[in-house]
Task: inverse folding
């Protein structure tokens, strides 16, 4: 009984930390309409800043908290709102997803440079000491966390329901124009919201960091610790603070009970996998339990100027020309070595990643479904390629395609009734759960699994040149397939579904079937890409498909152009080149790219004018308030006149 | 198309069988605010029924309930003899229920022709080889349906219009030669007409039109009236929400008036025009012209 009580209290303490994180998310969403994927990263930066000040420079705790919570976080929040978010007002939900993901990878990138992951970062409690109650030792720090969580919930509830400022903060999302007519400044209200959100993220980061007393804090763990808050915020439908608080406490309790009661009965490996994947599992369950979203006629026409679709003949000629160039490159670069890697092998990686990019063109570019888990399917494909028929067999590719297609359908099925943000969150949860619970398991990739080169009857692809050409041929074939799909009846349906789901349904088309089909096809393509990727260097490991790399790659495809084959290829080139020469800067470049490109309709390949890229405060939004493009969230924004430079 | 010469004031709508649409005691509320209260409505085949009322009266909500985008709190919707109250929108469309939207819901990044083509192909199974084969060589767009009218005719299965390819269907609604225009680049009036053509493409038995005349000039409005009357003459039931009273009074067989979610009057255009309740609530007290808006 005592241990149950102890676990219950610890669960409540854990949940209180999640509650602070979750209410911060709700505050940001309520006041801006944006789900801040960088919320955890902001908390992580705050936690490391706290370590820097208190542990490294011996700044008094109170002064450190003042610097972080009352100076640093508000300034950062105000800047993010002013420079990045204000120009997104009126955009559909997808667009801020990409921008906040960009912010996420920038912050983690900066943190990696400033605080080397090789070092240990230990923190001491803000208030030390403990007391004993009902045979349980409670630390004052833990009581403080619970007290802060409760005070925040009560305070925020009061702010939003009983004060003029709070009503203004909520109203700015519903109708900024109407708010302005009442004499309040929508921009100022929005900025207050972001300031409040950042302060709460920072507070959650510091308090959650203090719960990591034994293990120390790490960049990835701190960034993802907030994911438990995601699940609670989703249960509260991103607007109800008391429900969010209760959900966070319940999740804290559940996590504690599972860890202490259920997991000890499992094997050590499985125990570890489940512990790591639990936050994402909770998030996925929370998403699945959400009620179906009602189809709405939004009454907004996509204003995206689409790239011209090449005819079948043009596509084929382009494919042949690409392959001829690949043959020439294979001859010229056959013996070139960069950083110990044959250049043709890097080329092979580019081709394989290019296929993942093509899967995103199909899924996100054409059908508007934001997926953050294509690298998960890629990793599963690589794993199967190494295990099926002894590795390096075409059967492995077939298995990769089939298994990933089925998995893709299974991920899509329970979540396809949700709106874009929740769908993206579901893929986010799936990607991290697969990474933490499967890829990181030493029994899966271990130190890396060996995958032989593909062998066909009478043909050997053992040499680097033939391997490169094989992967180039695969890239060309998949590119032709994607373009063919776009020209087909199915392709028209994908674009139609993206442009107006309500109209799509009312002309007699089944949204669910189309979504599952395109998700399964895209997953199969990513699985094939993973299988091919595995054959390039002969070995693959979990780090090849980690969660953050997957997000960064999505951002690169968006930056170049998620609607074109060229965009997919150039994203792969950028990713491989940066990974080879400046892996630390991978997230920084992707994040900066997405923030800059957020203004341009079809990525870099669709830029009309350089000025459209500048996220400067004096670069005004077009009349109409932002982007009405249904693919806006993936960086596809109205072209030709959205941005105007004042003066 | 030529303007309608005589008003259609049919007091006895054609079609002696089942009504195309029967709305029974439908109520909808949003967070305690009642949007529709016990609404009853019957739309016989081969007629144009007008649905009028001030802004916020509940007209679009009723359209959403009929087309399946909004679930009613209570009441029932019958499409001929089929209870469609809980049916998903795409299933209703497959039965022959098409609609347009008050605020445009076009497939904006597709061309006008492709918009119509999506409607024409709505019952086609995309994985069939004959459709994939076309995509191998042809460019995307309306061209792919040209010269294949037999197949498309079979798909449409409608005797409402003798047009079955995107180009021909667009021409029929007055948009000849505009098949390759990107929908989101078209003026509002034309875009509304594309939406109408897309609705017709599924071969509807019941057509719900939410302010189709908005953004049209007088000549275009006349042509729209002619088209709707022609559609009704083929047996199609048309339910029309429209603020252009001249158009409504001219082409509708019956009119239903909504106010604050309640049906306050039903009847022929003449009866509605002279109904004091309607005049007070909608047209304005003292007005008898019916020519407002």
Result:
């Amino acid at each position: 009984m005592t241990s149950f009580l102890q676990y219950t209290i610890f669960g409540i303490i854990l949940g209180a930390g999640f509650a602070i994180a979750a209410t911060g998310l709700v505050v940001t969403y309520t006041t801006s309409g944006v789900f801040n994927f960088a919320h955890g990263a902001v908390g992580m930066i705050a936690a490391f800043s706290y370590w820097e000040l208190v542990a490294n420079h011996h700044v008094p705790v109170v002064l450190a908290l003042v610097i972080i919570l009352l100076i640093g976080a508000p300034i950062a929040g105000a800047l993010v709102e002013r420079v990045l978010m204000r120009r997104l007002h009126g955009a559909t939900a997808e667009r801020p997803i990409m921008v906040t993901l960009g912010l996420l990878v920038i912050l983690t990138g900066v943190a990696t440079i400033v605080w080397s992951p090789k070092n240990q970062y230990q923190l001491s409690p803000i208030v030390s000491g403990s007391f004993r109650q009902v045979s349980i030792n409670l630390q004052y720090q833990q009581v403080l966390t619970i007290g802060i969580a409760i005070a925040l919930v009560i305070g925020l509830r009061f702010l939003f329901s009983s004060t003029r400022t709070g009503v203004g903060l909520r109203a700015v999302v519903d109708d900024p124009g109407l708010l302005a007519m009442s004499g309040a400044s929508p921009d100022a209200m929005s900025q207050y919201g972001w300031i409040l959100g950042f302060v709460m993220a920072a507070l959650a980061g510091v308090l959650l960091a203090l719960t990591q007393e034994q293990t120390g804090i790490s960049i990835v763990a701190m960034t993802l610790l907030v994911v438990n808050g995601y699940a609670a915020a989703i249960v509260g439908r991103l607007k109800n603070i008391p429900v969010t608080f209760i959900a966070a406490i319940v999740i804290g309790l559940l996590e504690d009970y599972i860890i202490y009661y259920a997991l000890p009965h499992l094997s050590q490996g499985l125990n570890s996998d489940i512990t790591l994947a639990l936050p994402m599992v909770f998030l996925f369950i929370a998403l699945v339990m959400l009620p179906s979203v009602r189809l709405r006629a939004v009454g907004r026409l996509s204003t995206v100027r689409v790239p011209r679709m090449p005819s079948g003949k043009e596509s084929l000629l382009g494919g042949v020309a690409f392959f001829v160039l690949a043959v020439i490159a294979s001859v010229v670069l056959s013996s070139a070595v960069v950083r110990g890697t044959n250049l043709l092998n890097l080329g092979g990686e580019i081709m394989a990643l290019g296929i993942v990019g093509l899967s995103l063109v199909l899924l996100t570019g054409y059908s508007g479904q934001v997926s953050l888990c294509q690298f998960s399917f890629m990793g599963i494909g690589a794993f199967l390629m190494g295990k099926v028929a002894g590795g390096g067999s075409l059967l492995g590719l077939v298995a990769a395609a089939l298994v990933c297609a089925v998995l893709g359908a299974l991920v899509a099925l329970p979540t396809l009734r949700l709106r874009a943000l929740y769908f993206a969150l579901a893929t986010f949860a799936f990607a991290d759960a697969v990474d933490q619970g499967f890829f990181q398991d030493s029994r899966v990739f271990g130190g890396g699994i060996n995958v032989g080169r593909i062998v066909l009857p009478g043909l050997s692809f053992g040499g680097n040149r033939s391997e490169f050409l094989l992967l180039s041929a695969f890239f060309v074939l998949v590119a032709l397939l994607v373009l063919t799909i776009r020209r087909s009846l199915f392709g028209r349906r994908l674009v139609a579904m993206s442009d107006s789901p309500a109209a799509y349904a009312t002309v007699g088309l089944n949204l669910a079937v189309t979504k599952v089909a395109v998700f399964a096809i895209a997953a199969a393509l990513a699985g094939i890409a993973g299988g091919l990727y595995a054959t390039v260097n002969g070995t693959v490991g979990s780090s090849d498909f980690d969660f953050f790399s997957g997000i960064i790659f999505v951002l690169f495809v968006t930056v170049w152009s998620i609607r074109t084959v060229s965009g997919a290829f150039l994203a792969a080139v950028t990713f491989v080149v940066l990974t080879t020469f400046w892996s630390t800067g991978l997230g920084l470049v992707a994040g900066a790219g997405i923030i800059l490109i957020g203004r341009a309709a079809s990525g870099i390949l669709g830029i009309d004018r350089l000025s459209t890229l500048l996220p400067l405060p004096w670069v005004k939004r077009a009349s109409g308030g932002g982007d009405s493009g249904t693919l806006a969230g993936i960086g596809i924004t109205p072209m030709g006149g959205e941005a105007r430079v004042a003066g | 198309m030529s303007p309608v010469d005589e008003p259609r004031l049919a007091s006895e709508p054609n079609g002696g069988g089942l009504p195309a649409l029967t709305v029974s005691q439908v109520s909808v509320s949003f967070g305690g605010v009642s949007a529709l209260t016990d609404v009853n409505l019957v739309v016989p085949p081969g007629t144009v029924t007008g649905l009028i009322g001030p802004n916020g009266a509940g007209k679009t909500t009723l359209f959403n309930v009929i087309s399946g985008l909004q679930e009613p709190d209570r009441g029932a919707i019958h499409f001929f003899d089929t209870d469609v109250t809980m049916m998903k929108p795409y299933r209703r469309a497959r039965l022959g229920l098409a609609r347009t939207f008050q605020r445009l819901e076009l497939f904006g990044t597709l061309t006008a022709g492709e918009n119509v083509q999506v409607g024409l192909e709505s019952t086609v199974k995309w994985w069939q080889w004959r459709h994939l084969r076309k995509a191998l060589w042809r460019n995307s767009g309306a061209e792919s349906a040209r010269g294949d009218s037999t197949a498309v005719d079979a798909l449409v299965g409608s005797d409402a219009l003798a047009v079955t390819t995107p180009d021909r269907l667009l021409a029929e609604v007055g948009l000849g030669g505009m098949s390759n225009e990107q929908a989101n680049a078209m003026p509002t009036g034309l875009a509304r007409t594309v939406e109408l053509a897309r609705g017709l493409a599924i071969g509807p038995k019941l057509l719900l039109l939410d302010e189709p005349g908005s953004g049209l000039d007088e000549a275009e409005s006349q042509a729209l009236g002619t088209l709707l009357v022609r559609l009704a003459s083929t047996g199609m039931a048309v339910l029309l929400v429209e603020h252009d009273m001249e158009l409504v009074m001219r082409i509708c067989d019956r009119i239903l008036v909504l106010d604050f979610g309640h049906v306050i009057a039903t009847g022929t255009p003449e009866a509605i025009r002279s109904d004091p309740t309607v005049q007070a609530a909608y047209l304005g007290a003292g007005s008898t012209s019916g020519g407002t808006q």
Remarks:
- Chain A has a mean pLDDT of 83.
- The CA atoms of residues 265 and 467 of chain A lie 46 Å apart.
